[in-house]
Amino acid sequence: MTPQTHHPAVDKWVVALTVMFGTFIVVMDISVVNVALPHMMGRFSTTMSAITWVATAYAIAGIILTTLAGWLSALIGRKRLYLLSYALFTVGSILCGCSQTFTQMIIFRIIQGIGGGALIPLSQAILRESFPEEEQGMAMAVYSMGVVLAPAIGPILGGWLTDDYGWPWIFFINVPVCVVGLFFVSAYVHDPPYLRRGVARIDWIGIVLLSLILTTLQIVLERGQENNWFQSSWITTMTVLTLAAILVLIWWELRAPHPVLDIRLLKNLPLSTGSLIGLVFGLGLFGSTFILPQFTQELLGYPALESGLVLAPRAMTLLLCLPLVGWIYQYVDARLLILFGLGIVFWSMLELSHLSLHCGFWNLVPTLMLMGTGMPFVFVTLSTITLSTVERSRMTEATSIFTLCRNVGGNIGYALIATVIARQQQVHHVQLAAHVSDTNPLFVSAYQQATGALVAHGANPAQVPQLVMSLVDRMINSQARMMAYNDASLILAVLFLLTIPLVFILPSRRSRRRVAARA
Predict the structure, then answer these.
(1) What is the pLDDT of residue 512?
(2) What's the CATH number of domain 12-200+258-427+479-518, 1.10.600.10, 1.50.10.10, 1.20.1250.20, 3.40.190.10?
(3) At what angle do helices 12-44 and 119-130 cross, to 10 degrees?
(4) Residue 271 in contact with residue 387, Cβ under 8 Å?
(5) Per the CB 3.0–4.6 Å rule, which of 94, 124, 420, 519 could disulfide with 399?
(6) Whole-structure pTM over 0.90, yes or no?
(7) Separation between Cα atoms, residue 281 and residue 424, nearest integer Å
(8) Quick check: 212 and 255 in contact, CB under 8 A?
(9) What is the mean pLDDT of the chain?
(10) pLDDT in tens, 56-93
């Protein structure tokens, strides 16, 4: 059942822009920090493996609070939670920029993550309640500007601030935006009268289990590849602990009278199906955001800012298509829009699986614009249809589950892509090295030409064989890395393709209208 829409005391578009700011700044902070990690490594005199905890600590704290957002909003009130989270995120940002030691940075990033984690599901719930059914698509389009554009803009902004002003400014830049956001939330956002209030009993066991699961899962995904996954005893132990805790949490939350995570909501088929598709979409979105800057920096030699600018065509196309999709949603079955978007994204990922070391920025532009066209059709429409049959009094809990699935999908995406690239590079290196043989006429001819060229330029004849083989090995490594990136893009394309059958489980436009009519 869907209760009557909550009509805010102020214009709904003011509310939409207000909560979009919070979503944008929190999501962008993930990608903007990743660009600056190498600079922080030098500042804190630590290793690359250790410095990634700056991102991991934020992700763990954020994902825990994302899941607890519905329960906390009932405990202290949604507007109060929103303001408290905003303020904590602002304080955390200031402290991160002022960090003098690596330990301080980790602690302050946890504070920042705790503040930012709840803002995303709260923003989505507020938007869903502020717009009537016929305008839900446009509402989600505004929300999507924060969620989808932020990962694309983050590397650009992070590269510019880090190169020109220093890494602390990637945190200080949050402060004026947060101050404006706090003012607007305080003035224009209000709790609806039907919002569930009060918690009769605190589910401490659920909170502990949930925190344990999300922490260990994040650590496994972040550290699995560098520790050879299940060849490492501690990664295996953490994985078993995560799975066991998940089973215990499900059993406990189904029995608890006031669960911190209401798993019963997953009986709602559109919510559970849409959350599963959202997990795959998050995997693809963040996976592709990881691939492109890494590819351009490692193999094409782009600096940080230019590698971030590679994502600009996708971001611009997204910006143009988001309101268009919100408008089309009023007239076309949402499932058709999702299918169209998945097809376009599949096509673009398939194109990215045929890159070469000779491609440049303008070779990537058409493919990225194609991807930017398809993504809004998936994200805007999926967000809207997934929550379309959820009671508005349970909207915050439902958006927490949907957001959790997308975030977990993004974390899996990073881990999957890193693993695929590392493993496939080894496979392709072996395959290519097999052709380096005296029995291969093409190699013999190339070897003789390279030898002649080096001697002609004055190289020591005794060192020429070693120089030629060193050059060959470098070429093999580059080609193997390139082929591994292509494999990763192909896997993402196949994953998008496999979600298509799930779309037909989602409710049609007619069935959603019947639900609304019964409310």
Answers:
(1) 54
(2) 1.20.1250.20
(3) 170
(4) yes
(5) 124
(6) no
(7) 23
(8) no
(9) 81
(10) 788 888 888 888 887 788 778 888 888 999 999 999 99
